[in-house]
Amino acid sequence: MSNESEKVISEEQIRRTNKGGEKWVVIRNKVYDVSQFGNNRPSDEEIVKSHGNLYVGDVEGKKSAGSSSITSFLPKDKAVQAASSRDDDDADVGPNSYKVKYLKASPFGNMVPYSDPNWYQNYTSPYYNQSHIGWRKAIRESVDKIIAPYVHQWDEAGAIPRSVWHDCYAAGWFPACAGSPWPVEYVPTSPLLQQLGIEPQDFDPFHELILIDEVARCGSGGVAWALFAGICIGLPPVLAFAEKSLRLKVGAEVLKGEKIICLAITEPYAGSDVANLQCRAEKVKREDGTEGWIVNGEKKWITNGVFADYFTVAVRTGGTGMGGVSLLLIERNMEGVSTKQMKCSGVWPSGTAYVTFEDVFVPVSNLIGKENKGFKYIMYNFNHERFQLIGQAIRFARCCVEEAFTYAHKRVVFGKKLIEQGVIREKLGRMIGAVEATQAWTESVAFQLKKMTKEEGMVRLGGSIALLKVQTTRVLELCARESCQVLGGIGYTRGGVGEKVERLGREVRSMSIPGGSEEIMMDLAVRQAMKIWQFIQNMKMAEESSGAPSTPGNNNKL
Prior knowledge:
By secondary structure, the chain is of the alpha+beta class. It contains 17 helices and 18 strands. The strands form 5 sheets. Strands 2-5-4-3-6 form a 5-stranded mixed β-sheet. A hairpin with an 8-residue loop joins strand 12 (310-316) and strand 13. Helix 15 (462-487) packs antiparallel against helix 16. The chain is globular and about 75 Å long.
């Protein structure tokens, strides 16, 4: 059970409910379920309000109206008619302000302090609703069944059975790895969404964040990357920019777990410096009249590359710099494609590969978007890639907190439990403080992603997400180190009690470098801030010269 204070009810949800045979009424923009009255419409507000627990929630985007009568019965064939007005207690925040809707959910999980986001532990949140509660429960049950018991086995083997992708799709959540909104063009819905009553258009960044978080509870970057990386970073350029026939084919196969895709950008001598990559594609016309490109070059540290069926590849089709880069979809069965698993310090099951293309012919139909526009397409998805890394890193840090906290309550040293030692509590306090502050920032960014358009988010959130990526990975580094200090020897022993701490200690660098290294991310964020500041200064100068007022804070072109 949960207590959703001022629960938000959309007008569309009210319409659907009444079309389904139930009867909801709106009184002062509060929704009441009067189905038990049958066809006898209650005519008095006090009767409705006092007759049992009929309250459902508040109409989304509306506030209490001044009238004391029932403002709408919402019959089957009519839309909601609900007035709104400004409440007195909102007077100090502007005439168009609305009360924040918030949820206080019942405790969920093992209730180890700070081992879950605070809304799991009966704290009030403005970000989540009933659909998130059901989604969270379903994802946790699924992960605990098909992923968590096998993590150590997969990590040691350096591979995950191909059937796991099918299992994740059968569980109803795998398409969500591509992010919000739900990819309805390729997978219209899923049994899980239908079971929970979640409309695909209502799937938001918080559903995605819950999914990232719950899968990352397994405590393995290798497992999380194996399942998420390709669909998160390799597929979006195809879905956004490829020709319809190509994206429909590839999108459906990947989102259903039938095929695996990866993003191949990084090269032995070009990592964050994407504009200077060297993998070359020469346009040709074969004897049979088929046009395309011959691709030659190498890619390195390609996540999922070992077992990928498709490669979204950045190649040079033009001159130097970012203006000469294109994206091609290269298929595993094309002659000249070879991959070799790399031996990295962590994320072993993720299939990190060294990829070689030797005279690979790629037909023109496999061009993603327009020729020499690939750099733009690469930039298009960076916010989403980093958002997933952020969600994983903050949960990995929580794993370290939980392992250290619970172990400190069991381990006895010098006649005392570790938790009774002040120095241990200080370590835990620093870890917890860093995690909770970063979680708050993460949820704030998720809210902005929910409210902004994709294009606006690319411009306005790039710097914040870059800095947040640095913050979360540094918090993970802190927690991995300090939790290992608390656990001692078992914290660097593979398998057993310290398994998660040992593994995450190996995987810290794999979180801080991919998706943009710390140095590149901080430079990007500050340069973006400089541009915004210059824009504001220019507006002020224009205002002073013209005498017209300007409102840079409301300008979405920032």
